[in-house]
Prior knowledge:
Layout: H1 16-28, H2 33-49, H3 52-63, H4 69-76, H5 78-92, H6 116-121
Amino acid sequence: MSASDDPRRVHFQSPEYLVERLDAVAELFDTDRTDLLVEAIRDYLEETTDSDTFQELVARKYYDDQLEFETVTQLVGAETAQRLRLLKADLDDEPLDLDAPSDVDVYGDDAVAVDPDDAAER
């Protein structure tokens, strides 16, 4: 058992009916309330943190400097956190001051000229 797996006492309040229902399920499975709570929390966290919505929320808050890198690592894992760190560094960099290439026809024969006056009439 690693240091992060050491049990930690947590105290919270819950509606009485939930505790009674939890105790009934624990008795049915011949286990205790704590084991069921830990399993339910683990399942919830795995399901939640794997969702695209959650991943996007973490990324957005990290990019907006609302989350520290260490917190991001706890939420999405080291590999994803590192990828977000690299992307954030790219976003924070100043854009390169490069002139557009003049000798390359990026559109080829598919270029369509647009008259701005015609576009305003549409």
